[in-house]
Design goal:
Elements lengths: L4 E8 L9 E2 L4 E2 L3 E8 L11 E8 L11 E2 L6 E7 L11 E13 L2 E15 L7
Parallel strand pairs: 1-4, 2-9, 3-9
Antiparallel strand pairs: 4-7, 5-6, 5-8, 8-9
Length: 133
């Protein structure tokens, strides 16, 4: 059976009022590939291409996972894919865990140059059964 690749999406700049963490319903699988698609919108809810995009992968205590802090996205677009795999999806405890992907971006628009966008999404990583030795 081939390895699975899943894709999950969320959008920046669409939420107003109280910010509640976004939790994806799709689950990543330990040792597989999980692609998170981030879409960016300006204050008018129109798609916008950021001038800079960076992301950080953390556990729920805010500890950076797999040295993935401020990873620059070079192919900037109004919608970008952030692939996670290998140690990004490692489950050291052997139990399913929740991770947080934070994305920070800036764009030039009606509010000025380098207007910031920031958001984060939480997702669960399902642990695979360990093979007995």
């Amino acid at each position: 059976m081939p390895c699975s690749q899943f894709e999950a999406s969320f959008a920046f700049g669409e939420r107003e009022g109280t910010v509640v963490p976004i939790t994806l319903t799709q689950k990543a699988v330990e040792g597989s590939t999980f692609i998170i698609t981030a879409a960016f919108f300006d204050e008018n809810n129109s798609p916008v291409v950021p001038t800079q995009i960076k992301w950080t992968l953390m556990d729920l205590a805010g500890v950076v996972v797999n040295a993935r802090k401020d990873v620059a996205v070079s192919n900037r677009a109004a919608q970008v894919d952030i692939p996670l795999s290998g140690n990004d999806l490692a489950v050291p405890s052997g139990k399913s865990v929740t991770r947080c992907l934070r994305v920070n971006a800036t764009y030039n628009g009606p509010l000025g140059v380098s207007t910031p966008l920031a958001d984060e999404v939480r997702f669960m990583i399902t642990a695979l059964m360990k093979v007995a030795t």
